[in-house]
Specification:
The complex is a heterodimer of chains A (115) and B (116).
Chain A (H helix, E strand, L loop, with lengths): L4 E3 L2 E4 L5 E6 L6 E7 L5 E8 L2 E4 L8 E4 L6 E5 L8 E8 L9 E2 L3 E5 L1
Parallel strand pairs in A: 2-11
Antiparallel strand pairs in A: 1-3, 3-8, 4-5, 4-9, 5-6, 7-8, 9-10, 9-11
Chain B lengths: L2 E3 L4 E5 L4 E3 L2 E3 L5 E7 L5 E7 L5 E3 L5 E5 L4 E6 L8 E10 L5 E5 L3 E6 L1
Parallel strand pairs in B: 2-12
Antiparallel strand pairs in B: 1-4, 3-9, 5-6, 5-10, 7-8, 8-9, 10-11, 10-12
Classes of the chains: A mainly beta (115), B mainly beta (116).
Chain lengths: 115, 116
């Protein structure tokens, strides 16, 4: 069974440019999460999809970030325009159920560097 | 909101020595706790999770963790370190939001180095 995949693995862009990150969850997982780790800080929750609906986007930093999950399969996270403080590792995770006990399966992350 | 504190951003042990990675949580309700590991250039992998069924939880690769409510701790241990254990370890607590969502709150992580 394929795990969570993310593309690209690395991205280097200049301030003001746009970047789109993609996440493919484990097949059959309705729940998809985005997290971010800024250098030296904790991994922090960004948002949670259930199928194609945003269940919770309370962790999104500002309106320069736009997440979508059309069709309830893969998800994209767009940053437009990118700022220096957006640099970090963006993780995607998926889970089958939606409970406190549920294991979230993580992808390898996208390392974003904004210059 | 719950929080997780991992003591020590870097821990070094000799090969064959005991591994002890510390995690303390703050929660007003019984927590659900997780340990994840990230090997270089890989994603986070679940090591083990506490779901209140037993206070001593056994995970993969010989790791285990003990939930101690009185100490609000969930420390990760392994009796004998192996070179392949070198990685970054994350303690996390699962919490719900008012939106009916569930998210993980992570500690800052502890990088484990194993010295031959």
């Amino acid at each position: 069974e394929a795990g969570v995949t993310q593309f690209p693995s690395h991205s280097v862009i200049e301030k003001g440019q746009t970047v789109t990150l993609r996440c493919d969850p484990i097949s059959g997982h309705d729940n998809l999460y985005w997290y971010r780790r800024v250098m030296g800080k904790e991994i922090k929750f960004l948002l949670h999809f259930v199928k194609e609906s945003k269940q919770d986007e309370s962790g999104m930093p500002n309106n320069r970030f736009l997440a979508e999950r059309t069709g309830g399969t893969y998800s994209t996270l767009k940053v437009q325009p990118a700022e220096l403080e957006d640099s970090g590792v963006y993780f995607c995770a998926s889970s089958q159920g939606q409970t406190l006990l549920e294991t979230q399966y993580f992808g390898p992350g996208t390392r974003l560097l904004v210059l | 909101a719950q929080s997780v504190t991992q003591l020590g951003s870097h821990v070094s042990v000799s090969e064959g020595a005991l591994v002890l990675l510390r995690c303390n949580y703050s929660s007003s309700v019984p927590p659900y706790l997780f340990w994840y590991v990230q090997y270089p250039n890989q994603g986070l992998q679940l090591l083990l999770k506490y779901t209140s069924a037993a206070t001593l939880v056994k995970g993969i690769n010989g790791f285990e963790a003990e939930f101690k409510k009185s100490e609000t701790s969930f420390h990760l241990t392994k009796p004998s370190a192996h070179m392949s254990d070198a990685a970054e370890y994350f303690c996390a607590v699962s919490e719900g939001s008012g939106a009916g969502s569930y998210q993980l709150t992570f500690g800052k992580g502890t990088k484990l180095s194993v010295i031959p």
